[in-house]
Amino acid sequence: MIERLRAWAKALKRDVLALWLAARDPRVPLLAKLLAGLVAAYALSPVDLIPDFFPVLGYLDDLLIVPAGIWLVVRLVPADVLDDLRSKAEDQARPISRLGLVLVLAIWLAVVAAVWRIW
Predict the structure, then answer these.
(1) Alpha-carbon distance 35 to 64, whole Å?
(2) Into how many domains does the chain fold?
(3) What's residue 100's pLDDT?
(4) Which long-range contacts (CB under 8 A, 24 or more apart) does 30-39 make?
(5) Whole domain around residue 97: which residue ranges?
(6) What are phi and psi of 48, to 5 degrees?
(7) By the 8 A CB rule, do 15 and 86 touch?
(8) Pick from 16, 35, 42, 73: CA 20 to 30 A from residue 79's CA?
(9) pLDDT digits (tens, 9 = 90+) for 56-78
């Protein structure tokens, strides 16, 4: 069971990098590029939408949102292109997404502003 979880986590990391590459690849359709860019930006962001120190909820994005986004984009990218991007992702270093950081911080600021306004 532990080995299956490790293999799943490794495949998830590889697919995030493949999506990061897909967002820049001219062979990928526009909708898939946009979604791949958003999913990769969020997954590679140094800040989570729901911080991990919240019990259960903190890991919800890592366990549900990111895999669901990857699943959707994988369905939109042509299989041969995805295979090529996955093989390139094996050799790729993990980047850090500044766009993801900005998006997450913007969402947090919008939530804080809305709560402040309601309060």
Answers:
(1) 16
(2) 1
(3) 72
(4) 31/76, 32/73, 32/76, 32/77, 35/69, 35/72, 35/73, 35/76, 36/73, 36/77, 37/99, 38/69, 38/103, 39/66, 39/69, 39/70, 39/72, 39/73
(5) 2-118
(6) -90, 150
(7) yes
(8) 42
(9) 777 777 778 888 999 999 999 99
